[in-house]
Prior knowledge:
The protein has 503 residues and is α/β, with parallel strands linked by helices.
Amino acid sequence: MSGHQAQRTIHVGGEWRAAVSGATRDVLDPADAKPFAVVAEGGVPDADAAVEAARLAFDHGAWPRTPVKERAALLRRVAGLLVRDRESLGLLESRDAGKTLEEGRVDIDCVADAFRYFADLVVAEGRGRVVDAGSDDVHSVVVHEPVGVCAMITPWNYPLLQASWKIAPALAAGNTFVVKPSEITPLTTVALVDLLVEAGLPAGVANLVTGPGHSVGARLAEHPDVDLVSFTGGLVSGTKVAQAAAVTVKKVALELGGKNPNVVFADSCATEEGFDTAVDQALNAAFIHSGQVCSAGSRLIIEESVRDRFVAELVRRAERIRLGRGTEPGVECGPLVSAEQRERTEDYVAAALAEGAVLRTGGARPDPSPERPATGFFYEPTVLDQCHREMRVVREEVFGPVLTVETFRTEDEAVALANDTEYGLAGGVWTADAGRARRVAGRLRHGTVWINDFHPYLPQAEWGGFGKSGVGRELGPAGLAEYRESKHVYQNLAPKPVRWFAG
């Protein structure tokens, strides 16, 4: 957050400022629950000022009319600055969100990739799509224009990555925006706006309000001068955003998480290498970033014939995961992001046990150590066996290091279990049978399906889900299209009377 005082984290019209109310908020390190930064606690007046600045910049500023190549060049400059500051930004993301330092570094790499991708995409798309009108006397073309003022409400688990999935395409398309990061993890979004300013983005194009969702986020969603709202977060909050946006019929994009199946067929474990890989990937699917991932493979759905051996090995390895402060060498998994999130996880585990689940490992706060202060929000990787669809822990998104185990006997049963969810964000299929892989992937109602893998994504491929996982897509060509309006321009080159009416 170089270039301004820490508590001046609201950026409006090219200037850093404190909250109108003067309120501030401490940002806690989840590894020890101690404050390590202070940000402005914005409110409705700050949101209104930010929208006003973005509206002015869109309606009268240069950015929406800046040539595409110049906009792309700025995005590439931002990518270069991210590379330059990779270490400091990765450390900040690690400390703010509780993830390991290596995860933080990888996040910064992915953010730079997103800016490069949308810079390349917007240039490659050219100057519109010519439409054949069936006559040499007609020139017909579909062009793309920016939506206008975009409100972006981002989550706490991948603060900078999720912000970049919105900011990069919005800027590439020529929009202005107001971004509201999670009040829990706002710091790297503040740093990104600093980089946008350094890269030469005109004043008023990028605006930032740090503050709570119930006031700032709600105001952005309902604001009549906002043309699009993009929200990533929980289902309950996302529903409120959609309801607020509906009053002014603004465009809405929602990514609301998932309850993601990881389906393991016995044939994938027929060799020792296959077995080892499937177990390893099941751990990654469930416990990366302490399970605080919208696409976490938190439902292990495994063929009955290999279930006992697979779960036993999974439990053995889960018990060896090294928990601690993400910046400490050798740590593999950090804390949960907040006390509230840990309590939520504990409630889900307690409910599952009451409903008949069998605790195979975890289910408790770990003993303190130098890497795990007693005040930190740590929770052991947890495996719950003998689970079924009626359990809350199977139906609802926990967002913690909790893996449930279900079994199947037939391919049809596996597909039915995997699709038996209100969500539909992502899922994995493990099999050595190429035909089965294609069949099952084709039948799964999820926005991303991995075959013999879990978690990778590509900036050039759309990301989003079916059902209650949300509406719209991020990344890929569709991710750019979210921030555009299509306009059909029909030109008659040889106009003449129609003579429809006798006159």
